[in-house]
Predict the structure of Chromosome 2, complete genome.
Amino acid sequence: MENIDFNDIQFSDILIGSIQPSDIYAVTLTMRSISQSVPRAQELKERYRTLKETYSKLEEENRKLVGDTSGLVESNRKIMANTQVLMEKNVRMRRTLRRLKIVSCATLSSERQTREVGKVIRMHRMMGQLVVSPCRSHCQR
């Protein structure tokens, strides 16, 4: 297609056939498409800029979070140590409860029952668990 200055087109040019109506229609469609695309392109540029800013902020936040993991590791170590201590106390408490169950069993001899009660009371006091006085059966012995 040759270069056509559409400002210089006369109706007579169309009538004599030097310019085909299909060319004008194609150019009109192209111009319309361009005029619709320009605002859309501006909108997309703005969205791209916003997304780029958001990405930068998220990247910075991620960098900070990754840098803060050393504190989390130390905190996790402390939690694991505390968990270990609690597990050890739990084992001791279960042992104490087992002894208490043995003590409350009527089949034990009187001497052994007295000895076991003494152990249980001492263990409770040692662990600071004896908030209330032991039950009557323990106090009577």
